[in-house]
Amino acid sequence: MKVPLQRGLWLWAGLLMVLLCLLFLPLTPTARGVSVFVVMVAVIAGMVRAGRRPVNVAAQQLAGLPEEPYRLPVVLICGDMAGWPADIPVHQTSQGCWLKVDDSRELCDVVRQLLWLRPAWAVQLAVMVSLRPQQQSRNEALAPWLHELRWQLTRLRRDTQHDIPLLLSSQTAGQYVCESLWQTLLPGEPVQVWQDGRAPCAVTIWAAQDQLGTRLQQQMMLNTQADWFTQNIIPAFTAENPDVPPVLPYAVLLRQTRDMPGAQGASVWQDWLQQRTSITQVTGWYPATADDNAASALPDFLLPLLPKGHGTTPAQRAVRLALTLFTLATVVALCSSGWNNRQLVHHVAFDIQHYYAVAMNNYDRKAKAVETLGQDAGLLNDWSRNGESLRLSLGLYRGERLRLPLLDAIKTYVPPPPPPPAPQTPQIVRFDSMSLFDVGKWQLKSDSTKVLVNALVNIKVKPGWLIVVAGHTDDTGDDKSNQILSLKRAESVRDWMRDTGEVSESCFAVQGYGENRPLKSNDAEAGRAANRRVEISLVPQADACQAASKTASPEQG
């Protein structure tokens, strides 16, 4: 997939994740901020990685690749490939594509570069290991090379997340070969013989079609070749190894031709034949014929059996992946909306249950419980008028069915009774006796009316309140005379208030204390002047002032 498409997909995925974190996922504000930050870091890292090219393989290594979309199998060949059909490393046929890897140690790098250019080809890749035992001098030299190939193939399967098929091929030549052919061993299939341009057939049928017995001799040599391959090559991929898991071959192919360029007399194949047969001359017996062309060295007949690709363009894959991400985000949003609505129902139901569980006479807890219900109702009413929150939407909102039981619970609330009124202290109006009376007298002065009117403006007469008029003197004179004087002065003030305001006499109480309740010390003149006083106060009394027909006050007079 091209870099712009990959970066666009990262941006798309980041946008979807940010929207999920901000609008749908049930996260706290702190967790929401942390999640958005992590998503942004991941998107930036992904975009940087998308623009990074893999290890650069030489340009000629991948020259001539088919253009996308290409859905036929692509086989990478490692090993002995003398007589490659073209000068370029890529050979394309009607059945698929063959790609030669010159150095098997670069197999993973070649595949990484190939998938960077053609990302969709991961599902259609296969690896073929080609061996020509007549070009190998020692079996011991093959072991490290085969172990390296096994490790490379394990890495490929891990990196691509696909079970890349392994094809094992062996090619020999010699005087016993009457005709060039392939013999295949496929899992669950009988051994078959493949000849150029002909349909495959069973080994028994192919051998029986020759009356001279040359095919039988060639089959014997094929059996010997299969024994060498089974005992020396296949175990290198399937034997137990604590470091590398086993790699089972998808198919084993045996190739025989009349002549092979580069074959040598002393080889592992010659040694194997001498141990089991009497044949000593195995190559160069016949010249190459027309049926031994270079193209026949590639088993094209096996390509239809290998996995094929999807044949999609990078843009199509990008659109599919974008739609997949959108679908996944939609599913997550729906699940989050369902969870949020479930939490809303549980929260409101718990508040209602808690409200009913609190006794009505537990005024403080009941008030807090109904306040919580009021907050829930306000939130539901706001969503009802203006639309619910996105985290509760997508057709899963369940708040409407909660409003009625919530309002019913609020209606049952009975407010606590008002607290009893605080006891009122008597209101006291205090007069200096010298401003109202002459010395030793209890008759009001002629100019005392103005003083009384101004001072008694705020004295309100009403049922249930008693107007108490109390007189006080200093300690001059005897106690009895002072007590009589204070009482007479209080009666004079009471009579003026009664007559002026037309207040019933039952509203008054007159008291004379004489010198018994001084405000200050009588040792000084200032103290004696403060003690000579008349005090008027209102005192609550249930049966007071009941005979009055109307409420009157001094200012009305």
Q: Going across the biggest sheet, name each strand in turn.
A: 2-3-1-4-5-9-6-7-8
Secondary structure: number of strands = 13
| Biggest sheet character | 9 strands, mixed
Query: Radius of gyration in whole Å, from Cα?
Result: 57 Å
Report the uncertain regions: 281-295, 548-557
Strand % is 5-15%
Mean pLDDT: 83
Gap from first CA to last CA: 106 Å
Topology as a string of helices (H) and strands (E): HHEEEHEHEEEEHHHEHHHHEHHEHEHE
Portion in helices: 40-55%
Shape: rod-shaped
Structurally, the number of domains stands at 4
- Given helix and strand content, the structural type is alpha/beta
Number of helices: 15
Spell out the key features of this protein:
557 residues; alpha/beta; 42% helix
Layout of secondary structure:
Blueprint: H1 3-24, H2 29-50, E1 74-79, E2 90-92, E3 97-100, H3 107-117, E4 125-131, H4 142-160, E5 166-173, E6 181-185, E7 192-194, E8 201-202, H5 203-208, H6 214-232, H7 234-238, E9 251-257, H8 268-276, H9 314-357, H10 363-386, H11 400-411, E10 427-432, H12 433-436, H13 448-455, E11 465-472, H14 479-501, E12 508-514, H15 525-531, E13 533-540
Parallel strand pairs: 1-3, 1-4, 4-5, 5-9, 11-12
Antiparallel strand pairs: 2-3, 6-7, 6-9, 7-8, 10-13, 11-13
